[in-house]
Amino acid sequence: MSETTNPSPVPPHPAATLILLRDGPDGLELLVMERHAGLRFAPGATVFPGGRLEPADHDPLWRARWPQGEPPADLAHRIAALRECVEECGMLPTCAPPSSAALAELRRGLAAGEGFAAALARVGVAPALDRMAVLARWITPEMLPRRFDTLFFLVTAPDGQEPVCDGGEAVAALWATPRRLLAEEEAGRRRLVFATRMTLLRLAGCADMAAAMACAAIASAAASAQGLPAPILPQLVETAAGPMFRIPAGCGFLPLETSAESVRLG
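Given the sequence above, the corresponding structure tokens read:
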């Protein structure tokens, strides 16, 4: 059995994804959105809100917004995940419930190029930075021309807010159980990239939000000395059963090997 590698992989862009959770009649539900079919990366795929980090996400002024104590090492990733969630589906976990008008104005400001911090201050909204919990860190396989180093966060969905897609990146949004989304992909009615599918497989065993957040607590306990989870970098390997994408043992996700034929990377 051998491992396939790219001698000169493209450096991955730091990114963050936010998984909004709620308890529904059939158990744990997640907010997902469908990406526009004309996008270059993952066209038409069902994903969680998220995107790459921007320089402003690293502004030292964000540290003052942390409720108390030393901010976590993933603070910039938290900022990016929240910002992308507002931009793409109009939802934002906050310290106090915002009005729908404030959320709409915040989104308009971001669309017009206003900085996230400035827009938050102008509309008087404080994001709930400390209520997010990191579940995993996925890195795009090395053979791809577009790569991301992404932290996946879990957070309880804010009460009274409903998703409103931006129509650019996100064209549809829905609440669904992980099992439903996986079944729809198997039936050919939904497209899932590998990291999304693996996340759904892990959360499919969680009966409710409490169980899902417990998964994130395990990931946090296993974080590296830098305060970030160990990266999960799928490797393409040749096996007796054919090419497989393999992930590290002990990473918390199963299966460890998935046939390359059934893996969608972008």
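The chain has one domain: 2-262. Try to locate this feature in the token string yourself.
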